[in-house]
């Protein structure tokens, strides 16, 4: 009996209320303290104590002191890109809204199954509501449907899958996909995963502004048709990662309409700017495609792990995904939102709750104000750097400010600015040349940080 009692005690993984409150309190206190100190931390992160050595032996016995585990996680987090910091201007920042973080905690705690509507209809309805808010805010027609994904990469993959299923059927090997030489790498990777191998992917050259050239797209389509192939999909960009370039979306949509191709628009970075008047003026044609990717963990400042895909026709999104099994509840019926009809996922996190909670708490107008501010700050940075004779500022329409140092020295400039630690920049290479990138997108990046980056760049140029 003693053995059984000990075994039963070891098998009990439930904590009592006092224990849960203590653990949650520790996390909350440490997390809020960290966030309150973000503005004082080095923008590049603290890499003094990098962790290596590989996995440790599996722990047969646990560590009963939760604070010790918390200390280790927070210590490890220091040796990383400081992505939530206000001076993080590298790659494509997000930020991580606090209400969204709490919503993720709440979603994991209540742990309801939201992969199918029948399992948690009232909660799935919240996700549907958040998607509808954004559909309307972006300006899409009511018939357009949306689904949340783990990120923009899976959203792009899903769009290509929809295009393949609709337009290729069994003729998979003949299908050809087109994108620009500035496209996000997830597009070519997604195409491979969807069965469109590299020899059926076409990279269309770009203009001096690094936007796809429609006349060359049309020529490439005609050439492939002459070879007996089946052009089926064009992926354009509404804000490239390198420079924020926007492809000529209306012209590309017209070519796709004329040729019978699917037009997918990758707006993972730039799509959210469609929510504000200043952004809409820079994104003509963004609603004309067959599908659109947007990343709420970029332009809506959510924690990582929330992407979104809008598709013009419900049937096109359901075709590769809608299925049934004898162990699943009955289909809720035509026209009813069910995540499993729009996605490869069944078991999934309740990723709609962080989005819903953030939109409901702040209201869409607050997000619009934040996005408009980022456009203004990036515009000011661009104007200021353009005054420097030693820099060549590249053309850009959104919040990426890319520039080269005349005569070389871009790498040294970036390293000097990053070493100072007030802001953190990244880079890319365009036609073999080193290009420094500034991306203003985090909700924590405000006017003082815009001034910091200009000051630090000028300090380097002055020598």
Q: What descriptive keywords fit this protein?
A:
463 residues, alpha/beta, Aspartate Aminotransferase, domain 2, Aspartate Aminotransferase, domain 1, 2 domains, four-stranded antiparallel beta sheet, 16 helices, 11 strands, 13% strand, globular
Strand order of the largest sheet: 1-7-6-5-4-2-3
CATH class of the largest domain equals: Alpha Beta
Task: Domain count, please report it.
Answer: 2
Number of strands: 11
Low-confidence stretches: none
- Note the total helix count: 16
Radius of gyration, whole Å: 24 Å
| Helix/strand/pairing category | alpha/beta
CATH superfamily of the largest domain: Type I PLP-dependent aspartate aminotransferase-like (Major domain)
Span from first to last CA? Answer: 79 Å
> What is the 3D shape?
globular
Helix content: 40-55%
CATH topology of the largest domain: Aspartate Aminotransferase, domain 2
Kindly describe this structure.
The protein is α/β, with parallel strands linked by helices and 463 residues long. The longest helix has 23 residues, at 364-386. It has 16 helices and 11 strands. The model has no long low-confidence stretch (mean pLDDT 95). Helix content is 43%, strand content 13%. It starts with a helix and ends with a helix. It has a 7-stranded mixed sheet with strand order 1-7-6-5-4-2-3, sandwiched between helices. A 4-stranded antiparallel sheet has the order 8-9-11-10. α7 links the parallel β2 and β3. It is globular, with a radius of gyration of 24 Å. α4 crosses α13, α8 packs parallel to α9 (249-259) and α15 crosses α16. The protein has helices at residues 2-11, 17-36, 66-78, 98-110, 121-138, 152-167, 185-193, 214-226, 249-259, 277-280, 296-299, 314-318, 352-362, 364-386, 410-420, 447-462, and strands spanning 145-149, 175-180, 201-204, 230-237, 262-266, 291-294, 307-311, 391-393, 400-405, 426-430, 433-439. It folds into 2 domains: 106-363, 3-Layer(aba) Sandwich (Aspartate Aminotransferase, domain 2), CATH 3.40.640.10; 365-462, Alpha-Beta Complex (Aspartate Aminotransferase, domain 1).
């Amino acid at each position: 009996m003693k053995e059984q009692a000990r075994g039963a005690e070891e098998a009990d993984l439930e904590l009592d209320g006092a224990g849960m409150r203590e653990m949650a309190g520790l996390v909350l206190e440490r997390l809020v303290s960290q966030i309150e100190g973000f503005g004082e931390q080095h923008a590049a992160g603290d890499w003094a104590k990098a962790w290596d050595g590989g996995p440790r032996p599996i722990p047969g016995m646990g560590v009963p002191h939760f604070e010790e585990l918390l200390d280790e996680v927070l210590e490890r987090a220091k040796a990383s890109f400081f992505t939530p910091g206000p001076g993080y201007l590298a790659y494509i920042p997000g930020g991580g809204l606090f209400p969204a973080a709490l919503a993720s905690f709440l979603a994991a705690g209540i742990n309801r199954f939201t992969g199918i509507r029948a399992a948690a209809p009232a909660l799935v309805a919240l996700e549907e509501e958040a998607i509808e808010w954004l559909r309307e805010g972006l300006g899409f027609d009511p018939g357009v449907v949306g689904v949340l994904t783990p990120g923009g990469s899976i959203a792009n993959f899903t769009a290509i899958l929809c295009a393949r299923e609709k337009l290729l059927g069994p003729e998979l090997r003949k299908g050809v996909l087109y994108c620009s030489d500035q496209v996000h790498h997830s597009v070519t990777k997604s195409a491979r995963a969807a069965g469109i191998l590299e020899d059926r992917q076409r990279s269309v050259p770009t203009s001096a502004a690094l936007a796809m050239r429609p006349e060359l797209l049309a020529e490439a389509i005609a050439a492939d048709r002459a070879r007996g192939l089946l052009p089926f999909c064009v992926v354009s960009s509404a804000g490239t990662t390198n420079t924020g370039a926007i492809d000529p979306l209306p012209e590309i949509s017209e070519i796709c309409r004329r040729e019978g191709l699917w037009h997918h628009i990758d707006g993972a970075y730039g799509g959210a700017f469609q929510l504000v008047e200043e952004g809409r003026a820079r994104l003509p044609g963004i609603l004309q495609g067959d599908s659109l990717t947007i990343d709420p963990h970029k332009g809506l400042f959510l924690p990582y792990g929330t992407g979104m895909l809008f598709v013009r026709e419900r049937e096109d999104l359901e075709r590769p995904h809608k299925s049934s099994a004898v162990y699943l509840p009955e289909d809720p019926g035509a026209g009813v939102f069910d995540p499993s009809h729009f996605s490869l996922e069944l078991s999934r996190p309740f990723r709609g709750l962080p989005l819903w909670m953030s939109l409901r708490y702040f209201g869409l107008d607050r997000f619009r104000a934040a996005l408009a501010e980022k456009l203004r700050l990036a515009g000011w940075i661009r104007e200021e750097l353009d005054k420097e004779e030693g820099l060549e500022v590249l053309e850009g329409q959104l919040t990426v400010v890319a520039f080269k140092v005349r005569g070389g020295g871009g790498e040294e400039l970036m390293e000097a600015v990053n070493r100072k630690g007030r802001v953190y920049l990244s880079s890319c290479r365009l036609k073999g040349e080193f290009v420094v990138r500034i991306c203003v997108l985090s909700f924590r990046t405000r006017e003082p940080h815009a001034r910091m980056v200009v000051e630090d760049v000028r300090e380097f140029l002055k020598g």
